[in-house]
Amino acid sequence: MITLTTDFGTSDGYVAAMKGVMLSIHPEARLVDVTHEIEPQDVMEAAFVLRTTVPYFPAETVHLVVVDPGVGTDRRAVAVRSGDHWFVGPDNGVFPLVLDDQEPDAIYELDEPDAWRAETPSTTFHGRDIFAPVAAHLNAGRSPETIGSPADNLQPLRWAMPITDSHSVQGYVAHVDRFGNCITNIRRKTLLRTGIDPDEETPTDRATPSVALSDLPALKAYVGNAVIRDLDRTYGAVAEGDPLLLFGSSGFLEVAVNAGSAAELLNIRKGDSIKVVFQKEAPAG
Question: Does residue 215 carry a pLDDT above 80?
Answer without folding.
Answer: no
